[in-house]
């Protein structure tokens, strides 16, 4: 991490990331979409097995290979799939200052931790009569089931898990060294492997509840109009005051 002065004089914390060069190794098509496979981290022939040597030699027509392979699924109709070819190089120049990206990595491992640090428990009382109970988890449920339910928050390993930070802004790009400066912190320790994608790629698919609500509201309006129409038709034989009261009640 470092810091960067902007043009208006404000200072922002940034993370310096080596974003490439990555190479396109495969283009895949699935029933549910398409994907691009990228490779990063050069390796010598002595570190590769025969299968890896054959795979990389067909793509690059040279020796050596790469340590990391990762597939990125593309949405339907994405023009990037047709523009990329196997063996093509991708660097930091594909980003622009001001872009918002999602960054995924492996968080720092913190070993075995208790419930106070791992889950933010309040802990026990500090008064007399509560010896050695300050950072205890407390009750974990009734004894009727005679077992511990899955998902119960208890002490255990903390960190060393896949973590994603969304909506980070790209502050600056150094295309010569394939470096980008991203505002804020990213998951993991130094020299960790990161996956950088467009903003919103890691968001879960949410049901379109709004559309259902709009249809329901429209249906309610139609029913109200029909009720008012019926009241007007029936009210032709009634007194005007009675008809107005029934219309207001229907509305």
Number of strands: 12
Number of helices: 5
Could you say what the CATH topology of the largest domain is called? Answer: Elongation Factor Tu (Ef-tu), domain 3
- Share of residues in helices: 10-25%
SSE series: EEEEHEHEEEHEEEEHH
The 3D shape can be described as: extended
Contiguous low-pLDDT stretches (5 residues minimum) are 204-215
Q: Sheet with the most strands?
A: 6 strands, antiparallel
From the alpha-carbon coordinates, what is the Rg to the nearest angstrom? 30 Å
Q: Spatial order of the strands in the main sheet?
A: 1-2-11-10-7-12
Ends distance: 62 Å
How many structural domains does the protein architecture include?
Answer: 3
Mean pLDDT: 80
The assigned structural class equals alpha+beta
Q: From the coordinates shown, what is the CATH architecture of the largest domain? A: Beta Barrel
**Residue share in β-strands:** 25-35%
What is the CATH class of the largest domain?
Mainly Beta
Chain-wise SSE layout:
Blueprint: E1 2-5, E2 11-18, E3 22-29, E4 34-43, H1 50-60, E5 65-74, H2 80-83, E6 89-90, E7 100-106, E8 112-113, H3 115-119, E9 156-157, E10 162-174, E11 179-183, E12 195-198, H4 209-234, H5 240-250
Antiparallel strand pairs: 1-2, 2-11, 3-4, 3-6, 4-5, 7-10, 7-12, 8-9, 10-11
Helix pairs in contact: 4-5
